[in-house]
Amino acid sequence: QVCAQLCRRPCYCPWVPPRCPRGSPLVLDGCGCCKICARRLGEPCDFLHVCDQSQGLVCDYSSASAGTGATCNFEEDEEGCEVNGRLYRDGEVFQPSCKIQCQCLDGGFNCIPLCQEDVRLPTPDCPHPRRVEIPGKCCPEWICEAQDQHLLQDARAVSPLLPYPCQEWGTDWSACSATCGLGFATRVSNQNRYCRLETQRRLCMLRPCPALPAAFPAVS
What residues does the VWFC domain cover (predicted)? Predict the structure, then answer.
């Protein structure tokens, strides 16, 4: 009965398919008639406006009784997170770039840097240390300009072992800088090879930001 009420035959579709936002493929509507933009995680849905099944999403009507309408959610209430238009399962580890590694947890995600954020202070043998990006390498490295303009110094290799025991010290991680979406948490710690105080950062996300309204078809 629902199909007979909402689906008209023959199909009447726009000549030009809609332009979909990034991460939303073109799919057939619930009537199997016209191509529409698949709804993404957290976006409203109904019989006609279907969710992106390729990402494991279904139209969740559990909140419809509360007056908020149905939304796209993972099947069987499985938690997940969306990063740069791609969906990840709960517990999945992924790398948005070579410099950070993230894990999807309870609808959000936590990230840690893969590049050391050590600080190299000037020394007599290296009065002007400078950190630069090296072609073909992900993490920046130190250049000691006093010895050779093109000589790369690996701070982890040239430093001798500490002649004294290091008493580890560090602050707790700060609160996330953003209430929704991607933010940063910071701390000060000397838990590194040189027992040197440094400011460390990691990415954090308390919860996803509310989804933007679905893009409407462009009208010429």
Answer: 79-145
The per-residue pLDDT for 97 is: 85
Domain that holds residue 23: 1-76
pLDDT at 37 over 90: yes
Q: Is residue 212 part of a domain?
A: no
Residue 23 and residue 71 in one domain: yes
Tens of pLDDT, residues 160-187: 555 667 777 788 888 888 888 888 888 8
46 conformational bin, left if phi > 0, alpha if psi -120 to 50, beta if neither = beta
Write down the pTM of the prediction: 0.35
Looking at the structure, do residues 37 and 58 belong to the same domain, yes or no?
yes
Going through the chain in order, the beta strands assigned E by DSSP cover 26-28, 35-37, 57-60, 71-74, 80-83, 86-89, 93-97, 100-105, 108-113, 129-132, 141-144, 152-153, 183-189, 198-204
Exposed / middle / buried, residue 187 (Cβ in 10 Å: 0-12, 13-18, 19+) = middle
Q: 68 and 11, same structural domain?
A: yes
List the beta strands (DSSP E) in 124-215.
129-132, 141-144, 152-153, 183-189, 198-204
The answer to whether residue 194 is domain-embedded is: no
The total of other beta-carbon atoms located within 10 Å of residue 156's CB is: 13
Instruction: Return the CATH number at 100.
Output: 2.10.70
Averaged pLDDT score across all residues of the chain: 77
Per-residue pLDDT band at 45 (split at 50, 70, 90):
very high
